């Protein structure tokens, strides 16, 4: 997720762009840049300053020429590290076209190869840069910028919003999008485009949402929107809530960041899956930096992580063992460090960390490297310390997560780890191309299934109402349902401050059952061992527990006082991605009923850099 702003017709273009970028920083902040129309040329400046890139950019633009049009970008890196060279805007070979982009271009590698063969010179590692070279070819062929954008977007696959400016027509800003939101707007005679309304509050008073594959040509006071065939269409006007301030707008109409991020989960899963299948159908993990040759002697995989990331690692253990037939262990990072572990050059250690900075996980990875193991990190932050130090990385593409309780990053971690497990299966020859393709096809259905699970919030709210003032919760599951139960318990305790423990369902009778009495709530994840789970549920129900179960739509014999239904997922290894959603919603609902600040739970921090 990145932030985009473009404007035309404002004598103070640079100030307005910088102001917009500051407001968009919540979408990404590892680098930032601006391009301005400068007479018959373009002027560009970029900065890559960690979490203060926009401030650095503002300082670097002190000598900018006066300009009435420009485009700006604040980046959350997905392809290529957050360096100045990778920061947007990107320029074509002539330096006369500038482009900013949010999203992922799936077929960038093939496009880059053919563009390079036609003489284009690339200056970044991004997937974005192909777009500006494609525009360059279209303009050289005589197209205007609008037609050039339409032709370019026709050749690319992926999810994106894109904005371009060309020196040849300096009053024109051209934008296009697919699956990623983008607004056009006007305030007085000034025309704008932006990723979201927060960038434009106080400047614009008329807003239009671009639809998929539409192209907007914005000039001062004028908007022309065309569809993918070039036919002019009536732009979709949108009303902006007059009470919104910048923070409310950043929440996009949701009450808090947590619910916004919950609803961003289908996108986070879809983006994490983009770009992982090569032209021949095989798995491609660009930044893994390890080949089958490097991994040929690996005889064990160890996943290290904390909290929700640990639970994602637990889900991955099943995938690695089932698909790659490789022994897999999951370790709490803070425990691995001080154990007499047996790690060596034949161990692959995978650190799972949304932030890539959690000290326990970082030190566990360092420990593994000292022992000679190869290390890979699954992280949401491309420039994080873990990502820099590890031998390889697989990035989740969830965008920044503001709420302390991890939701969209957790789901993205699970699917990223599952893709890694498939890559291991491919290299080890434990799954053939057809079997891998079939799992990948099933994974493509996950964003829709997650969206479906989220759409059932009302049913979850009703269960939360029915639970009244319950204070004690057990979350139970077996096999792949066990990490889902652990994650459900963690979410609930984190934001509601209710006592919630996760257990393997078979363990209940070995001790914790002593605590179960009328008033205790047992949340049971029924799949994948639903028959076995039925007896564990009966044990709890017999002691007076109120049972809430999570069951697939297809489960006709689901047990429980309340049943939270989820869409059926054909492959049980993938089902946790969907099953965790009602438990996130339940935690959210109960916490809100208690009046808690769900975004900032007491005693917790988003990034834990202490032992
Ligand atoms: C729970 C949560 C934490 C983190 C844990 C690890 O909602 O967010 O349990 O999962 O602190 O953080 P990362 O993934 O950044 O290493």
Comma- or semicolon-separated keywords:
single chain, 611 residues, alpha/beta, Glutamine Phosphoribosylpyrophosphate, subunit 1, domain 1, Rossmann fold, 3 domains, eight-stranded antiparallel beta sheet, seven-stranded antiparallel beta sheet, 19 helices, 25 strands, 35% helix, globular, binds fructose -6-phosphate
Written account of the structure:
The chain is of the alpha/beta class. It folds into 3 domains: 3-250, Glutamine Phosphoribosylpyrophosphate, subunit 1, domain 1 (4-Layer Sandwich), CATH 3.60.20; 274-444, Glucose-6-phosphate isomerase like protein, domain 1 (Rossmann fold); 453-593, Glucose-6-phosphate isomerase like protein, domain 1 (Rossmann fold). The chain has 19 helices and 25 strands. The strands form 4 sheets. An 8-stranded antiparallel beta sheet has the order 3-2-4-1-10-9-11-15. A 7-stranded antiparallel beta sheet has the order 5-6-7-8-12-13-14. Helix 9 (307-324) packs antiparallel against helix 17 (481-496). The longest helix is centred in the C-terminal third of the chain and has 21 residues, at 408-428. The model has no long low-confidence stretch (mean pLDDT 94). The structure holds fructose -6-phosphate.
CATH class of the largest domain: Alpha Beta
Which ranges are low-confidence, i.e. pLDDT below 50, for 5 or more consecutive residues?
none
**Strand order within the widest sheet?**
3-2-4-1-10-9-11-15
> Which structural class do the helices and strands define?
alpha/beta
Largest sheet: 8 strands, antiparallel
Count of DSSP E strands?
25
List the total number of helices.
Answer: 19
Give the % helix.
25-40%
Q: What fold name goes in the CATH topology slot of the largest domain?
A: Glutamine Phosphoribosylpyrophosphate, subunit 1, domain 1
Strand content: 15-25%
